[in-house]
Amino acid sequence: MNASLFKFIRLTSSAAAVAAVLWAGACSSSGNKGSGRAIPGSPVSVALAVQKDVPLEIASVGRVEAISTVSVKAQVGGEVTAVYFKEGQAVRKGDRLLTIDPRPFEIALKQAESLLEKDRALLQNARADVARYVGLVQKDYVTKEQYDTLVANRDVLIAAVKADEASVANGHLQLEYTNVRSPIDGRTGSLMIDPGNIIKANDVGPAVVIYQTTPIYVTFAVPEQHLPRIKEFMAKEPLKTEAIPTANGQPPVLGVLTFVDNAIDQATGTIILKATMDNRDGALWPGQFLNVRLTLTTEKGVIVAPSQAVQTGQAGQYVYVVKDDMTVELRPVKVGRAYGEESVIAEGLKPGDRVVTDGQLRLAPGARVEIKAGR
Question: Measured between alpha carbons, how far is 116 from 312 in angstroms, rounded to an integer?
Fold first, then answer.
């Protein structure tokens, strides 16, 4: 290779190197201009702290109980001739449920009535004898002993007539017992005996069990530490109680607290309470389990925020509050209690504060945020 050609190659390589340096510088300059743009904030969801009236409630799990449960038994024995209800049917007090063959009791009643008529006739004659002999004994036509015998016979017949009248009344009662009637308003259970069977008076097993379901009890237990406040507010007014069936879509059933047990369960440290529910629509059923809310009072004008906004750190509970410049401030708070999906904030927030409800893990005090659309 001659010297002139080598010199040309060296000049060309140098020019290429200078061009590469100039291009890199231009790219670097362009990148520096781009780095001046604002870094986007962390996406978060927010909600407003609000001031409102919040009920002070105690939550528990309860069980529905019938106010009255009656095991219906026959009071006389005999053959069941008719049944007048269907299993599970609602019945009213006095409705006829069963009929027991009344013929033996009708016969016994007629016998008692006949004996009563006989003794009444004898009594009438005995009284006439006493009336006739009272004058004779005064004139000594008959002895005093004869007169006393007549008086005693009259008194015996008076007692016999009273016994006969009681027998007739009992006969009517036994005959009435052949119609087994419902002693309460309620709903029948399974029928334990069918027509044609022989039933005994006060048999071991009931013919049917009736539950009173309107009104009805909801029984639940609360920790004993709530008892002083329950007594305090119960003395002022009836305490509203809500029974919430676990089945989706069923509305709460309203009632009032009507019973506080007279002793605390030492094994569990709880006190048994009962609320009375009207239950006219039959939403509650004996034995049913459900959620219960007992409202003690309503706190006026408290600050609430979504519970998911409240975080717990080494120094205690806190929330992130979004400021006007779209940066966040870590704000220590004091939570009074929970109410549904919200928390009552005793200290640390004021109405209108924007608190972060989602995205807290990416935040630090002073971090810039971007509120998600629709939040």
Answer: 91
Alpha-helical segments (H) within the chain: 3-34, 103-138, 144-177, 227-234
Q: Pairing state of beta strands 354-358 and 42-48?
A: antiparallel
pLDDT in tens, 141-165: 878 888 888 999 999 999 999 999 9
- Summarize pLDDT for 40-81 with one digit per residue, the tens: 789 999 999 999 999 999 999 999 999 999 999 999 999 999
**Residue 26: inside a domain, yes or no?**
no
CATH assignment of the domain containing 334: 2.40.420.20
Cα–Cα distances in Å, from 118 out to 127, 129, 139, 155, 158? 14, 17, 33, 15, 12
* Prediction pTM value: 0.68
CB-count burial class (<10 Å; 0-12, 13-18, 19+) for 68: middle
* In-domain check, residue 160: yes
- The residue segments making up the domain with residue 84 are 74-99+181-211
The tokens for 229 are 């406040």
* Shared-domain flag, residues 144 and 83: no
Structural domain count, the chain: 4
Per-residue confidence (pLDDT) for residue 235, from 0 to 100? 92
Show the tokens assigned to 291: 């959620």
Is 314 part of any domain? yes
Q: Residue 124 and residue 128: Cα distance in Å, rounded?
A: 6
Rg (CA), the chain: 46
- Quick check: is 11 in a domain? no
How many residues would you count in the chain? 375
Where does residue 213 rank: exposed (0-12), middle (13-18), buried (19+ CB within 10 A)? buried
